Amino acid sequence: MLTQQTYIMLKPDALKRQLLGEIITRIEKKGYQIVQAKLMQLDAPIIAEHYAHLTDQPFYPKLERYMLSGPVFGMVLEGEDVIRGMRNMMGPTNVFEAAPGTIRGDYATDVTYNLIHGSDTPETAEAEIKRFFG
Ligand SMILES: Nc1ncnc2c1ncn2[C@@H]1O[C@H](COP(=O)(O)OP(=O)(O)OP(=O)(O)O)[C@@H](O)[C@H]1O
Fold it and tell me: Which residues carry out catalysis (predicted)?
């Protein structure tokens, strides 16, 4: 049994498309606890910090515009093996590989506009929770 925390961020398209309730319902039905949550408008420096591994990619300007395009909903979730569990529920980054039943597989059709972010390791979860919740 491994109770851990992860940082989940519902991206601007999730809010614009009014999918917040739908996605949060899935998370709650799965059994994960929301222990912190807030609506935030990100700025360019925090986006660059969060996506530091991607700033030299040709698609980064598009990713930055997307993340600046409206508020995001950040959450800290707690549960058994929640980091891996949420990555499974989200589906892969490339929505064309995301199976039906996953959040990206069911609701997203574009590699950039893929609705949700989730930490991928305990180390990044800790850093991201600190970044967005202090
Ligand atoms: N090849 C690409 N073309 C366009 N956008 C991309 C591409 N790869 C990634 N992105 C965008 O950058 C985000 C971060 O990519 P990363 O490789 O960190 O994947 P991820 O860990 O699944 O995503 P996230 O960090 O948002 O959870 C993706 O979620 C997507 O919005």
Answer: 117 (pros-phosphohistidine intermediate)
